[in-house]
C-alpha cells in the first residue's frame, strides 16, 4: 500500500512550479500525494494532474472568507487543521511558517510523521519588515516548532546553516531548479526585451527598474501580478514609458517558459530588506539559465557563489541607476553576451530537477512513518 503524503501551501496551486515538481516526483516514486492550497476569488480552474500516466497527484483548494492579513492566516490555518484531521495520511509536510502550526499539530495529535519544507527564511521576509509585532509572533512559532522537527529541508545552504545555528535542526538542501529539457534554439529571435518574472511585491526592485526605463532602449515585459501592480502601472504613465513596459499578469508555467526563452535578458532584482532576500536563491535564477538567457542578479551570497562557478550573467551590487544601465550596456557586447549564453549550457547540466529530485526521493526514503 502506498505511503500517503499531504503537502500544504497558502498560495494558488496553478502557479507554484516548485510544488508541482515536488509532488510529481514523489508520485513517480510511488507515493500517494495530495497538494493542499487556497481558493481565491479569481483563481483559475485547477490544472489537471490526475491524468498523467506517471507523476499524477491530487489537489485540494480551501475556500476562505478573508484574502489577506492576519485574519486570512488565522482562518486558513483553522480550515487546514480541520481538513487534515479527517484525511487518511502517513506524512504531513508543512511548507513555510504560514502552514507549519496546523500541520505539525495534526501530525502530533494523530501520531503521523511531520516534515517541514522551508522555501525561505520566513521571519526575515520583506512582508514583515517594519512590522515587529507580527514578526515576533512568527518568530515564536518558528522557535517553538523548528527545534522539535526531525525531518526538514530548504532551498539553499545559507538558510540551512541559519536554522542549524539557531535551533540545532539539520535541514537537507533541495534547490528549486527546472526540469532539464532540450535547450531552446536561439536563432531568429525577432523581439528583444528584458524580462522580469515573479510576484509584484515591495522589495522586488520593481520601482527602481521602472525608474530606469526612460534611459533604456529595450522593452520590459513583467510576467506576474501582485499588490503593487496598479502603482507600477501609474508610475509607467508618469514617466512616459507605458509603451515600453508590458504587464502580462499571472500566466501558466508553460506560457511563462516560452516568454522566458524568447527574452533577451532576465532580471533577478531584490532589495536587501531582510536576511530572507539576502540569502535567497530565487526560482527565476535557474529559469533564466535553462532558457539560455543571460541575467542580471543581485550580488548576494548564493547568486555570487553560482555565478562565480558558471558565469551566466552580471551581478548588481546595489540599486544604483548608473550601474544598472551600465550592466545593460555591457550585455550589448555580442561577444560577452554569447559567452554567457554558452555558459548556460554547462550550468543547466548540473542545476536541474533530474539531479535535485534524487535528493528529494532519498530524503523521503529515509523517513519511517509512525
Second CATH tier, the architecture of the largest domain: 3-Layer(aba) Sandwich
Helix content: 40-55%
Low-confidence sequence ranges: none
Q: Which band does the percent of strand residues land in?
A: 15-25%
The CATH C-level class name of the largest domain: Alpha Beta
State the CATH topology of the largest domain.
Rossmann fold
Could you please describe the fold and organization of this structure?
This protein is of the alpha/beta class and 370 residues long. It is 42% helix and 16% strand. It folds into two domains: 4-177 and 353-365, 3-Layer(aba) Sandwich (Rossmann fold); 193-350, Rossmann fold (3-Layer(aba) Sandwich). It has 14 helices and 13 strands.
Describe the structure concisely.
With 370 residues, the chain is of the alpha/beta class. Helices cover 42% and strands 16% of the residues. It has two domains: 187 residues, Glycogen Phosphorylase B (Rossmann fold, 3-Layer(aba) Sandwich), CATH 3.40.50.2000; 158 residues, Rossmann fold (3-Layer(aba) Sandwich).
What distinguishing features does this structure have?
globular; 42% helix; Rossmann fold; 7-stranded parallel β-sheet
Topology of helices and strands:
Elements: E1 4-8, H1 17-28, E2 32-39, E3 58-63, H2 69-85, E4 91-95, H3 97-110, E5 113-118, H4 132-145, E6 151-154, H5 157-167, E7 172-173, E8 193-197, H6 206-212, E9 219-223, H7 229-239, E10 245-247, H8 253-261, E11 265-268, H9 275-278, H10 283-290, E12 295-298, H11 301-310, E13 313-316, H12 321-330, H13 334-350, H14 353-365
Parallel strand pairs: 1-2, 1-4, 2-3, 4-5, 5-6, 6-7, 8-9, 8-11, 9-10, 11-12, 12-13
